Amino acid sequence: MSGARVLIVEDEPQLRYALRRYLEENGYAVRLSEDGASGLTEFGAFKPDVVLLDLMLPDISGVEVCRQIRRDHETPIVVLSAMGDERTKVQALDEGADDYLTKPFGMDELMARIRVALRHSGSLRAGETAIEMGGLRIDVAKRTVAIDGAEVHLTPTEYTLLKYLATNAGKVLTHPMILRSVWGAEYTDTAVLRTAMNQLRAKLHDDPAAPRFILTEPRIGYRFTVPDES
Ligand code: CA
User: What is the distance in A from the centroid of ligand 1 to the CA of 227?
Assistant: First the structure.
């Protein structure tokens, strides 16, 4: 998506300017903010296609910035987190951030994450009744699932789980988010999720060690893969 607008909210000047230079060289339009409050103001003015959001900011936290953006907007947010900042990173993902990069990260990795964040390939548009990607087809009207044309029989829970993952393809989904969405607000036991995930993976013939569809994010949750369009 050449020409896409990227808002960078990052208080470290060197990283901020390096990111801008690199993204501009790759055809993106970039705006910079050095703290959370100006980041939110810039978000409203610039209407970015994707936000790169540092979590440790001098005024309000990146988690709070994420929460405020998510009140009214679905704009993809990729958080930039420091090593050892697991808890804050998970909080940001729980508040609706799409993905994270742990500093220091490579520019190739950054570009790949931005492309995924911009793609939204799993979302259903108005009037569409099927999700199709990478050989998987979910017919949401008939509630049927097929891989490479062969039907896969799922329990209602497995189906709901798969549909939730696939409609959020590319996005890191935390254990609490998945439990809330698939089982309901009162569920907090990740063992229930782990069991259903094992069964789902087995039925999809998806090997966790070499996944085709569902990636494990250790200690955080899961992510449905976005197939390469190239
Ligand atoms: Ca910082």
Answer: 32
Cα of 16 from ligand 1 centre, angstroms: 10
How many angstroms separate the first and last alpha carbons of the chain?
Answer: 12
- Residues in the chain, pLDDT under 50: 230
113 and 172 assigned to the same domain: no
- Same domain as 161, residue 73: no
Which range of residues forms the domain containing residue 193? 130-224
**pLDDT, tens digit, 9 for 90 and up, residues 109-161:** 999 999 988 886 555 666 778 888 889 999 998 999 999 999 999 999 999 99
Number of domains in the chain: 2
Question: Which one-letter amino acid corresponds to residue 190?
Answer: T
- Which residues keep their CB under 5 angstroms from ion ligand 1? 11, 54, 56
Q: Which residue has the tokens 């990146």?
A: 62
Q: What is the pTM of this model?
A: 0.84
Cα(171)–Cα(87) distance, integer angstroms:
18
CATH code of 52's domain:
3.40.50.2300
Give the pair of three-digit tokens for residue 216: 């494990």
How far is 54 from 215, CA to CA, in rounded Å?
24
